[in-house]
């Protein structure tokens, strides 16, 4: 059985939040907090894994609306690209 951690859950959570919000590397944050960088890195990975949605999770209403908007925008951009390709081909013909 592993010995109890010398770091409280509150300290771990705060350290992870600092690491995620900071523009510094995990190693730099760990050094400032007087932690082993691999310890902090494992806490960050564990936190990120817990935050990931389940692969089979349904989309929320907001996510569905955002997806629909992005799909609409994607279709619009594809039409623009098609038009611009045709225009470029037309103007590439040099009638001189």
From TrEMBL:
Residues 60-87 form a coiled coil. InterPro entries: Homeodomain-like_sf, RD_transcriptional_regulator, Transposase_8. The keyword Coiled coil applies. Keywords: Coiled coil. This is Transposase. It comes from Streptomyces mirabilis.
């Amino acid at each position: 059985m592993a010995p109890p951690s010398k770091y409280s859950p509150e300290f771990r959570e705060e350290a992870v939040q600092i690491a995620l919000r900071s523009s510094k590397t995990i190693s730099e944050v760990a050094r400032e907090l007087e932690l082993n960088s691999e310890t902090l890195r494992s806490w960050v990975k564990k936190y990120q894994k817990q935050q990931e949605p389940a692969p089979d999770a349904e989309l929320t209403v907001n996510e569905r609306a955002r997806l629909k908007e992005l799909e609409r925008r994607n279709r619009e951009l594809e039409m623009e690209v098609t038009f611009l390709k045709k225009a470029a081909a037309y103007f590439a013909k040099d009638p001189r």
